[in-house]
């Protein structure tokens, strides 16, 4: 989570007047800035040749920037035609920029801080947002071959160039959480305003939680991140506002059903806002953004009775379970298997490796309903690996913590390699590059 402290002493915090309609939606395109390690952006025909050489891309038309405007690329990728603009731009590292999800060495951060130029690449997302972002990353890596980092302006995040290079080479699209960040703004009184950046370019509402607090903002962060990921990976597209979305389960087995409402309507449910009120929306957060609410029952959904997120504050801190969509699980599994060679290599080293395996459940209805549970790697062999179960399953009664078994790469859905420096996952293999 990216925290911003805000000293807000405004006294007039009365209930705002209802808003008639949403303001003009302006943040449509995805903007990223590719920062070269050398400090130089070379705009030449070789750049376009490298784009044409990207596997799976057909370059239909292109021209370099000129006095009339930015350069342009028209490509066909996975059956869809995209128009992409680009130009050389001055670069200054913003003071407040999230590094959420990415690690940088001190040397990398020093080089980024000293960078003065970048290549700005912008495009409209259409269809699957992860596929579009993957294409944009591929273009950045090809057009700036000595890539140091990417400043993702739309998500207000700094992305490691080593991660981007590996992502561009992968056949698996980036995960939903790569597309957005969750930022937290706090004031002296302890109120916290959580909000996302990066979702608008994906064609969905930015999400926010108003009147959170420092004691519960981590749990609220999980709610907003899970809801955003669910909206991005939903098979039939993001559910509409007021639709109930089952995102998790409390420890008492009560479901967490979230929804959202455009801020122009939702803000009228709040009084005495220290953060996120009308005064904070004069220059930003005044477009396509929506506060998150919860439903407590089926009757609530039928009647449209929404509750503020703090309704479950007294219960959410006790180890809630947040869901991952089947689409995201499939993506994670594909990446874990694609990069499983690193597990094989590190299995010969002095480190602990955990592997998540998908096991058929007892209540399986469709023939392939699986519970994804963690095992500790014991030994690799030519046919797979032996591992010991380190947790008690919920719906696989024949297995218990401490049981051992033999599995293959086809069973793998995730893995973690624990080193002295930290944990390496399929998405952070760049840490070992």
Describe the structure.
With 433 residues, the protein is α+β, with helices and mostly antiparallel strands. The chain has ten helices and 21 strands. The strands form three sheets. The protein has an eight-stranded mixed beta sheet. A hairpin with a 4-residue loop joins strand 9 (181-186) and strand 10. Helix 1 (45-52) packs across helix 3 and helix 3 (129-143) crosses helix 4. Residues 7-20 have low confidence and may be disordered.
What amount of the residues lies in strands? 25-35%
The global form is: globular
Biggest β-sheet: strands ordered side by side in the sheet: 1-9-10-11-14-13-12-15
How is the main sheet built?
8 strands, mixed
Broad structural category: alpha+beta
Termini Cα gap:
25 Å
- Extended strand count: 21
Query: What is the radius of gyration?
Result: 23 Å
| Number of helices, where a helix is a run of at least 4 consecutive DSSP H or I residues | 10
Please bin the fraction of helical residues.
10-25%
Mean pLDDT: 89
Low-pLDDT ranges: 7-20
């Amino acid at each position: 989570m990216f925290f911003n402290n805000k000293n807000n002493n405004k006294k007039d915090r009365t209930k705002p007047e209802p808003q008639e309609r949403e303001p003009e939606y302006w943040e449509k395109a995805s903007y990223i800035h590719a920062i070269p390690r050398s400090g130089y952006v070379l705009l030449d025909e070789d750049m376009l040749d490298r784009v044409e050489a990207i596997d799976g891309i057909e370059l239909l038309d292109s021209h370099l920037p000129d006095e009339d405007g930015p350069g342009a690329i028209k490509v066909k990728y996975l059956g869809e035609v995209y128009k992409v603009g680009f130009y050389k731009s001055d670069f200054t590292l913003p003071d407040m920029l999230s590094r959420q999800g990415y690690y940088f060495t001190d040397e990398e951060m020093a080089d980024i801080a000293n960078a003065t130029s970048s290549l700005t690449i912008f495009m409209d997302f259409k269809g699957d947002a992860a596929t579009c972002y993957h294409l944009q990353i591929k273009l950045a890596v090809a057009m700036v071959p000595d890539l140091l980092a990417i400043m993702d302006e739309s998500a207000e995040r700094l992305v490691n160039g080593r991660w981007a290079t590996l992502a561009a080479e992968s056949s698996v699209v980036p995960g939903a959480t790569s597309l957005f960040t969750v930022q937290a703004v706090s004031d002296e009184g302890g109120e916290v305003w959580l909000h996302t950046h990066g979702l608008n370019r994906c064609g969905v509402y930015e999400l926010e939680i108003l009147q959170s607090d420092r004691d519960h903002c981590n749990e609220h962060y999980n709610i907003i991140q899970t809801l955003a990921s669910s909206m991005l990976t939903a098979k039939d597209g993001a559910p509409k506002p007021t639709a109930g979305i089952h995102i998790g389960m409390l420890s008492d087995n009560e479901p967490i059903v979230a929804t959202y409402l455009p801020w122009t309507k939702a803000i009228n449910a709040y009084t005495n806002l220290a953060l996120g009120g009308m005064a904070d929306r004069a220059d930003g957060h005044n477009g396509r953004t929506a506060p998150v609410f919860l439903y407590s029952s089926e009757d609530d959904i039928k009647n449209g009775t929404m509750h503020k997120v703090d309704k479950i504050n007294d219960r959410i801190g006790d180890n809630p379970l947040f869901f991952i969509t089947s689409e995201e699980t499939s993506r994670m599994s594909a990446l874990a298997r694609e990069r499983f060679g690193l597990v094989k290599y590190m299995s010969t080293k002095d480190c602990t490796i955990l592997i998540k395996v998908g096991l058929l459940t007892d209540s399986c209805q469709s023939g392939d309903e699986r519970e994804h549970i963690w095992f500790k790697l014991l030994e690799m062999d030519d046919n797979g690996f032996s591992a010991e179960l380190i947790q008690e399953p919920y719906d696989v009664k024949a297995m218990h913590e401490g049981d051992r078994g033999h599995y293959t790469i086809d069973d793998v859905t995730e893995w973690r390699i624990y080193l002295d420096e930290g944990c390496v996952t399929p998405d952070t293999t760049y840490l070992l590059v």
